[in-house]
Amino acid sequence: MAARALTKGLLGLRHVRGATVKFSNTGHHFATSSSIKSSESQTNSVTEKILNLPLEKPDLFRVSELFSLKDLFDARVHLGHKKGCRHRLMEPYLYDSSLDYDIIDLDKTVEHLQLALNTTAETAYRGGIILFVSRRRQFCHLVETTAKDCGEYAHTRYWQGGLLTNAHIQYSPGVRLPDLIIFLSTLNNVFQQHVAIRDAAKMNIPTIGVVDSNCNPSLITYPVPGNDDTPVAMELYCRLFKMTINRAKDKRRQMELLHGLSEPSASSS
Amino acid sequence: MAVLCRLRFGVRAAVRLSSCISIRTSFSSDCEAGTRPESGFAAAFQRQAVLQREAESYTGDQSGSISGQEPNFALLFQMVPVRDRVVVGNIFHVVRDDLYIDFGGKFHCVCRRPAAGGERLQRGSRVRLKVLDSELTARFLGAKTDTTLLEAQAVLLDSESTSQDIK
């Protein structure tokens, strides 16, 4: 009975302490596995420290410096559609309607855009896949060049039904889906909501979307109320997203270099 | 109570109002209990002083954001091209006889090249327009929302270059 209690106690200790408890009978097998585990845990702890860095500060990538309210005003981001085209759910984001034209409240846009850019930066920092989606033929080339410049992906053509939901059959079983989808215009050419918004919500993929006064912001994780019809506004958004993603990737490379210098010394000791 | 009345609350300080109401209830409950009235009042007074200081610093910050808000509203009526308004636009795309002109509104307008002096109008030339409608929309029968053409309608007046030549 005493022996049974002792073994139980030892087992309990093993579960709690993990690699540090040594058993005499298993000898060298346990020692080698413990040494591998300790080096893995050290590299894991370094990557964890790199990954947790942006979570400690509210704005590590300083995205609030990238734009100001005046920039948004000059790019005509506040202009909305006519009152008759207004979507009921966009009413909280609208400031006023001057002679039937809706004006989007730029204070709210600034807040939402900062949140959205912060999310993009954090996703890019962690090496996530970002997909730019827009069905506006006028801006499809701009969106594709933006995605190419920041090393991410774009989809500005016809969206087939099962691209996200049926990916394991349409592509291959182990395909990796995007970690963030950015909609530069949430409507498709027939003024219906883009299918990808619903599909991304089904597949638990966070979305950022530029919602105009005739769009439905409900399924989008980070809606950014703003104009999506004027070329100046679209160029502004593309430039902002490109700058945040490049900043985040540069920061990650910087962090890895910084900690990469200390990594080999830790594993050798 | 007098301290509460004297503090001025802005629109965004509604949260502060609710916190002040909670302070007031805690103060009254402390008085009723009668066990430690001094600590209740002292705590409330200290909290009020901190809040007043915060409110003063916030109004100092808010003036910055208000000035950001003001151009949005004040320049509003100047920037939105209203009906029957003469504006200057510049041509950004040309397709044979159609000129795509951007005049600073949400949408561009498409005008036909005028017969007289039309060859001079190329990409980048400035023209004078009379904006008839900043966005062409209409509600059709049985529709919930308007259908929009994503275009404005304008009429080409004499282009600036021709008016300068005449002078």
UniProtKB/TrEMBL annotation, chain A:
InterPro entries: Ribosomal_uS2, Ribosomal_uS2_bac/mit/plastid, Ribosomal_uS2_CS, Ribosomal_uS2_flav_dom_sf. GO terms for molecular function: structural constituent of ribosome. Transmembrane segments: none annotated. The keyword Ribosomal protein applies. Signal peptide: none annotated. It holds the Pfam family Ribosomal_S2. It is found in: Mitochondrion. One of its GO terms (cellular component) is mitochondrial inner membrane. Keywords: Mitochondrion, Ribonucleoprotein, Ribosomal protein. PROSITE patterns: RIBOSOMAL_S2_1. It comes from the Eukaryota. GO terms for biological process: translation. Belongs to the universal ribosomal protein uS2 family. Required for mitoribosome formation and stability, and mitochondrial translation. This is Small ribosomal subunit protein uS2m. It comes from Crenichthys baileyi (White River springfish). The gene is MRPS2.
UniProtKB/TrEMBL annotation, chain B:
InterPro entries: Ribosomal_bS1m (IPR019375). This is Mitochondrial ribosomal protein S28. One of its GO terms (cellular component) is mitochondrial small ribosomal subunit.
